[in-house]
Amino acid sequence: MACNVFIIHGAYGRPDENWFPWLKGELEKLDCRVFIPKFPTPEKQTMKKWLKAFENYGKYLNEDSIVVGHSLGCAFILNLLENKKIRAAFLVAAYYKFIGNDYFDTISKTFMKSFDWEKIKGNCGKFFIYHSDNDMYQPLSMAHGLTDNLNARLKIIKNAGHFNEKSGYVKFEALLHDLKRLVAKDL
To answer: Is the whole model's pTM more than 0.85, yes or no?
Structure first.
C-alpha cells in the first residue's frame, strides 16, 4: 500500500461529486487507499459534527497520510492539523477565515478560528494550494494569505472557478500530477 489519502469535500459537498470519484480511482491505481468521508452539510453543520463523522477514519490518518481538501474541507483539515501529523496537504479553493458572505460565514463559523500556524506547519511536511483566478466564492487574496501562513506552494489555475462540476471540474489533472509525484516521493 503506497499510502492513505483522504479527500475532504466542502459545504454542500458529497463524496460522489466533482473530481473526487475520478481522483479516487486514479490514486487507487497507484496502490493508495483512498477515503472520501461524507460529512453533514449544510444544515446545522459544525466542526464538532464533522469531527464525529470523521471518527471512523481517524485510525487511518497517520504521518504518511496525504489529505486533499476542497473549499470548507480545507478549514476542516487545518483544524485537524493542529493535533495530527501527516505527510502532505493539498488545499483546493481553500478558505480559512470569514469571506464576508453572511450565509457562508454563518454555516462555516465553527470551522473558523485563530489557527496555530506554527503547530499546523510542524504537523505537516508539505502544503500545496490550488486556486482559480476567477473563483466566485473565494477571492485570490485568500490563497495568498494561506500561502503566506503555511509557506505553501501556490498554483493559480486560470478560469477554474470553484473547481467543481459547475466549473467543468470532473477531472483535475494538475492535482493528480502533483499527487503522483508526492506518492512516488519525487516532490
So the answer is: yes
- Domains by residue range for the chain, with CATH: 4-183 (3.40.50.1820)
Residue 47 main-chain phi, psi, to 5 deg: -60, -40
- Sort 169 into a burial class: Cβ within 10 Å, 0-12 / 13-18 / 19+: buried
Distance CA 179, CA 186 (A): 10
Angstrom distance (rounded) from CA 183 to CA 108: 31
C-alpha cell at 161: 472557478
Beta strands in the chain (DSSP E): 4-8, 33-35, 66-70, 86-92, 124-132, 153-157
Alpha helices (H) in 44-161, listed in sequence order: 47-54, 72-80, 102-107, 117-122, 140-150
Over the stretch 102-129, which tens digit does the pLDDT of each residue have?
988 999 999 999 999 999 999 998 999 9
Cα–Cα distance, 54 to 65 (Å, whole number): 15
